Fold this protein.
Amino acid sequence: MGTQIRISREDDSLPCEVCGFPTMHVAQVIADDGRILGRTLVCTTCSRNRPRPEAVPQADAPPDEVPTS
């Protein structure tokens, strides 16, 4: 499933330093197993207008499959 962010509906929003709209929220970063890893700031206006970066495979990363003999 991957790491997720969770924005609280009860907390107030703040003005964003980039776009100026009052749509900056404190969000929780949630691991696959439900643990809270930390918090981050998320602007719902900026993130809606910005394309998500594509995952770039690392050249030094080990392969996903483990060879079996």
Notes: The CA atoms of residues 47 and 54 lie 14 Å apart. The chain has one helix and three strands. The beta strands are 4-7, 24-30, 36-43. Helices lie at 44-49.
